[in-house]
Every structure is written in structure tokens, then in C-alpha cells.
Amino acid sequence: MLAYIVRRIALMVPTVIGIMLISFVVVQFAPGGPVERVIAELTGQGSSATARISGSGGDFGGMPQSAPGGDPVSSKYRGAQGLDPAFIKELERQFGFDKPAHERFFKMLWDYARFDFGRSYFRDVSVVDLVIEKMPVSISLGLWMMLISYGISIPLGIAKAVRDGSRFDMWTSAVIVVGYAIPGFLFAILLVILFAGGSFFSWFPLRGLTSDNWEQLSLTGKILDYFWHLVLPITSMVLGAFATTALLTKNSFLDEIRKQYVVTARMKGLSERRVLYGHVFRNAMLIVIAGFPGAFVGAFFTGSLLIETIFSLDGLGLLGFESVLNRDYPVVFANLYIFSLVGLVVNLISDLTYTWVDPRIDFDTRDV
Predict the structure, then answer these.
(1) Averaged pLDDT score across all residues of the chain
(2) Can you give the residue ranges of the ABC transmembrane type-1 domain (predicted)?
């Protein structure tokens, strides 16, 4: 097992490098960029960035914005005609585009290997501080969504498999299908309208994870206030997630229950509980565990974007989306790097969980 873990960790290095290389190449051919964004801001041709333009190393406002003599300046950047070439060169230097692409890529890899993500182009803060600032929101949403989703769907899937074809199975299937069919963001809007002061009740808050007076609350009050803010966003995220996992669990259990070893176990006089949780469970749960890495990464990062937007929760999903729009490449690549590492590590943990659920699995006898 130790040799397998070492091989998997060693393979993470070229995998992450490949992901970063492909993304870096795509960005080089993407239209627009931080230099063009600054030019558009200064010439009044674009909307403002997420925050003031100051984080990459200087104040651009004092630089000349027109060429000597008023002659237009040819430039490779759209909208740069009429700007001083020295100003454009300074912009390129500030953003690091005065160096060849391969030098920038290898420098990024070296910095990222030391978890040095630099500073945001359009926020006066380091990328690490920015990610840490947004992390509590994503952890809160992802952690509780995963716990509640799996806590509901696995027992429900088992119960449906045991009662296959019963009235309970049909009613719960109807609820699951409806839950799966309703998009999470649409259900979130419905919850806002109904319970967050939209048109009916104002039972739940609509912004942030805590109230303004959170610091003055007692420990019990802080805990209650925290969960009070989480009720609506977590409900919105759990709706579709638990539906998928519940059906997956049911089908996996049904497939295992019909196998010969279950019939043999029952013929030996084992109790139904012993058959289900002593024999069927460890085999049926393998397929559920296999889908955990994708569900984990999606819950913590990508899957929470619309929910964060609707409930005004400033987390990693919203940060990544805004960074792409603003061409804030240090934040974009740092998010990608962190997501990739987390996904690979969780995937390894998922494989190790196989051996915990079913000790008969031995990864040392297979190729990575």
C-alpha cells in the first residue's frame, strides 16, 4: 500500500504540470488580458474591475496617456492607439508580460511549487490572503452540503433498495425526481422569495455567514446565528446532490442484493441486518465512493458559484468567476492549482477508502 501511495503522489507532479500548461497556453490565445483591461479602464471603454487597479506594483494614473505630438501609436493591444509607448511598456512590465511566455510559465511553476502565488492584479492583496479570506464561505457550504447530502442519501438509498417497489419507494422516488429536475439556483431564488424577504416571509438572512452583531453574541448565539445564515444556501445545494447519490446508492444495493453470495448468506441463517451491512454494504458503497472526489471538489468550489451569487456569499467560486472576467491571472491560476491539488489528493483518499470499506482490495497488485 505504501508503494502505491508513493507512486500516486509522484504522478501528481506531471499531472498538475500538464493541467497548468494547457491552461497557460489557452490563456495566451484568449482575447483580452490585464493590459487591455487597464487600457480600457483608462480610456473609458470598459467597466471597472472588481477592485481598484493597484495590486500589481504601481499607480498607473500618473503615467502619460498619449503619444508625443499627439500622433497615434501603433500597438498590439486593442484600444492602445494614442497612448504613450512607454506607458504600454510599463504596463507590460508591471504584469510580467515583458518576458517570453516560456519564462513566465517556468517562473510560475517554481513559485507555485513553493506556494508563492504572488499578488492579485486588481486587488491590493496577495493571492494567498485573498484565498484564505474566501475559504470560510466555501468550507462552510461544501462541508455541510456533503455531510447532509451523504447523511440523507445513503440511508435513503438503502431503505429504498430494501423496500424496492413499495409505496415508500414510489413516493420517495417522486420526491427525488422532482428534486433532481429543479436546478439548485432556481430553487434558491424560490427560497429567497418565500423566506428571505422577497415577497412573503423574512425568516432568514440574505447576506453573509454571520450577522453584524456576531461578535457581541454568546457562544451559543454565534453557533445559532451561523447555522441560521446557512439554512437557505445549504438547502438549495443539497436538493440536487442528495437525489443523485440516493438513486446511485439504491441501484448499487439492488445490484448487490441480487447476487448469489447474498442468497448464500441468507441461507446460512444470517440476519437481514448482517447481510446488508456485513456483506452488501462494502461492495455497494464502492461506486458511491468512486463519485466522491468529483462531488467533493464541485461542492467546495465550482458548484457553489450561483448559490454564492444569489445569497451574497463571497467564496472561492465567486472569486474564481470574477477573476476570469477581470483577467486577474494570478488568482485564476492559483485557484486552478489549488483545485487540481485538492482533487488529486481527494482522489487518492477515495482510493484508500476502498480498502477501508472492502479490505479485500489490494492496490499493490495493480498498475497505477
Answers:
(1) 77
(2) 135-350
Q: Are the C-beta atoms of residues 61 and 104 closer than 8 Å to each other?
A: no
- Are 121 and 327 in contact by the 8 Å Cβ rule? The answer is yes
359: left (phi over 0), alpha (psi -120 to 50) or beta: alpha
Q: Which residues pair with 202 in a beta bridge?
A: 196
Q: How far apart are the first and last CA of the chain?
A: 12
CATH 1.10.3720.10 intervals, the chain: 128-365
Q: For residue 146, give the nearest of 301, 253, 276 by alpha carbon.
A: 301
Q: What are the tens digits of pLDDT across the range 103-114? A: 889 988 998 988
pLDDT tens, position by position, 39-81: 777 666 655 444 433 333 344 444 444 444 443 434 466 655 6
CA distance 130 to 227: 24
Query: What does pTM read for this prediction?
Result: 0.70
Sequence-ordered alpha helix ranges (H) in the chain: 2-29, 34-42, 85-95, 101-113, 127-162, 167-181, 184-195, 219-257, 260-267, 272-275, 281-290, 292-300, 305-310, 316-325, 329-357
* Structural domain 128-365, CATH architecture: Orthogonal Bundle (1.10)
